Amino acid sequence: MTDSEFTVTGRGSGTQASEASVTFGTDAVTVEGTIWGANGCKTAALSSADYDATADELTVAVETVDRDDAGDACTQAIVEIDYEATVQFAAGLPGRVVVTHDHGDGPTEVTTAER
């Protein structure tokens, strides 16, 4: 594993959506997903991207966190936060990818993918 990038691609009112899909490229794994936040002050962040060489497994952990620019007042509606995480590899891709989401109550496995 050589690098990782994380981008929030959209935010809006919604439901408690928690989903992700994994794509294996030539030298990178891309995770696109949606995580929910409890209110309008929440956004998504990459908690960690860890590669276990022994298990040949990449774990991508996404969490909801407070937005830096949230201010003092937040909508009290659930927000859906779309994101994209890309993890680069130099010597081959992992055989398995696990994606977890944490909404503040501990990580939950959302999806797994094998190549």
Description:
- It is a single chain.
- With 115 residues, the chain is an all-beta fold.
- It has one domain.
- 0% of the residues lie in helices and 63% in strands.
- The protein has no helices and eight strands.
- It has strands spanning 3-13, 19-24, 28-37, 42-52, 57-66, 79-88, 96-102, 107-114.
- The strands form two sheets. A four-stranded antiparallel beta sheet has the order 1-6-3-2, with no helix packed on it.
- The two termini are 16 Å apart.
- The model has no long low-confidence stretch (mean pLDDT 95).
- Residues 1-23 are annotated as: Disordered.
- Residues 14-23 have a biased composition (Polar residues).
Structural class: mainly beta
Span of the ends, CA to CA = 16 Å
Number of strands: 8
Radius of gyration: 15 Å
- Mean of the pLDDT scores? 95
Uncertain residue ranges: none
Strand ordering within the main sheet: 1-6-3-2
For the biggest sheet, the summary is:
4 strands, antiparallel
Task: Report strand %.
Answer: over 45%
Counted by DSSP, the helix tally is 0
How many domains, in number, for the residues? 1
Percent in helix: under 10%
Shape: elongated
Order of helices and strands: EEEEEEEE
